[in-house]
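Supplementary Text 2. Reproducibility record for the structural model of the 286-residue chain.

All settings were left at their defaults, and a single model was retained for analysis rather than an ensemble. We include the record here because the model underlies the residue-level annotations in Supplementary Table 4.
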Amino acid sequence: MKNQQQTRFSLCSRSMLLGLMCVPFFLAGCSSSHGVDKGKTQVVAKVNGEEVTVHEVNQYMSHLTQLDGTPEQMRKQAIDAVIDQHLLQTAAKQAKLDRDVNVVQAELDSKKNILIDAYKARQFHSGTAPTDQQIAAYYQSHPVLFSDRKLYQLQQLRVQSSAENQTSLLAQLKQSDNIDAFVHWLDAQHIPYDTSNTTKAPEDMSPSERSLIMQIKVGEAAILNQDQDSISIDLLLATQPQPISLAHAQLRIRDLLIAESAAQQVALWLKQARLNSKIVYTDIAQ
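Retained model, structure tokens:
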């Protein structure tokens, strides 16, 4: 199963939890009991004359998945992190990277995707929640994710190999009695690789990866990915049944059905938008 970073607290007391919840208010300087000018508290630092604002710090903290220390310590850490961002951004601009064609294109793509995602979130949503019957039907039609769900213990091997050498490398993998023999061969040939063990649930895999893993038996390997520089191999070490009951799957299925409904709405909208638009392909071979 994917490793997930867990939020850690230095103290588990109720007072500490309340302190953490109040962090944005410390940042924003909302308290009027000290007679502080609210306008002045919007700037928490200056970097070579450039202002670091409360909004930037709050935004940074909103993306954190791991919190350590007291609220005051976390506030200081967040401010310092944003200051570092300012320093790096200034250095990048001084290196004229903001004019680099790849950087400019990446910025345009990012803005485009943010705008598209915002439009989808606002325009395409399910008007009504899925019914109990729809949820039950989804549960029954996806046993791999629920009633027959298993955890898959995998040894993942990523081998560095140029495209021209991959055929012989895969042939050696097929001839090897087991993955250990294949790894010994890699060592003998001085072929770089890295390996790690992980446990994955079916919902953590892409549909294509899930399909490949479910086709192999314990002790067998699957080629998950090949590119110009490497091959990724997964060896199935063990499986562990871990079904999920309908009662415990309802909220997850509800979210999945809502997402599917939104995707269908997007597809229908795009189909109509294409019909109502004049689209001319100018760079596709006929």
